[in-house]
Known about the structure:
By secondary structure, the protein is mainly α. It is built from four helices and no strands. Helices cover 62% and strands 0% of the residues.
Amino acid sequence: MPVLDHRxxxxxxxxxxxxxxxxxxxxLAHIADLDRTYVSGVERGLRNISLxxxxxxxxxxxxxxxxxx
Length: 69
């Protein structure tokens, strides 16, 4: 499956606050109650993330959902 630009951009916007907080993908996944491989796929633009999981990541990173868009 090709990586779509909008998915890659979304993943970059998840990765930035994760790095700022010094979290690994595994750490973020644990806090957000997601699988590490799922978080990895989101950050690499391979996943078409659901609205529910967008909210989980925003809450785990303590950012507003709009940060990702």
